[in-house]
Amino acid sequence: MGSIANRTYFLQLKNEYRKSLKPPETEELINQLFNRPLAFLVAKVLQKLKTTPNFVTLLSLLCGVSSGFMFSRGRYPDIMWAGLLLQFMIIFDCADGQLARLTNRSSKLGRILDSLADLATHCSVYWGVAIGLYRHTGTALPFVLALSAQISMYLHMAFFDHFKSVFITIARPDCIDQLDSLDKLKEKIEQLEMNNSRLSSMLGRIFLWFSKMESRVVSIGYIPYGTNFYEQFPDTENIDPQTRELYYNEMRVPTKLWTMIGDTIHLTIFVVCGLLNRAFLIFPIIIMYTNVVMVVALFVQRVKYRNLGLEREIRWQERFN
Hints:
Strand content: under 5%
Structural class: mainly alpha
CATH architecture: Up-down Bundle
Largest sheet: none
Number of helices: 12
Distance between the termini: 62 Å
CATH class: Mainly Alpha
Radius of gyration: 21 Å
CATH superfamily: CDP-alcohol phosphotransferase transmembrane (TM) domain
Order of helices and strands: HHHHHHHHHHHH
């Protein structure tokens, strides 16, 4: 009886773990292999403690900002602790979403808080490392590199977040991380303004501004076949199964390429270099490696998107002939 009970428990745990994950095609490899399993254990403990996903987001924010402060001190013991704190931030950042999916407590406000907590962490660690390097060099070069690397990261994140959400919206409509149009996003933020505090309203407006910037940046992934996703798929709720299958087959490769420059990859570079006392390598690695991957991913994205358009035209011709 005991072995049957244990087997049932582990099967239940396995199913819950799968439920807490994003589609594997949209997940960064380091998260799949390391961060998500640890974060799931954290999420299960916090679920028993009846902790809200937004509270876990605040824990992530605290670890991220503290990591930036420790990086700014510029000494190895502090840099090592900065790397560890940032790894805890990554775990909590994964756990808040997994807890939300486990408890069906995902919300637009939670998504906004998560994005802004990530933004605060990014600013903290980038400029914390720059200050720490400045203590050794006495030149402005670390700040120039920090600015260049951070701009690169936000460019990468815009592509990754957008095309990940597009893939989920079309190919995996059963998942909750759907892409919202700017009009729909504006409506949801207006609802937040009516039902919540001024803080929620302000956070929503900041999130909407970033979403508008993202839509302009990622348009290069569609040109010359369009300028945005909704020109090609104006009614996402009524996409036929053949089109969904076609999109999955064509776009899963570029979607996986985008995961190679997600924000967790960038932060993991900070973690590894911090633990190895090689903080001076962080900005060059981000600027060179991730931008090369972005160019490759963008090229594949455009080629696959062209193939998708041609295949859709053939399907439509076959349908009406």
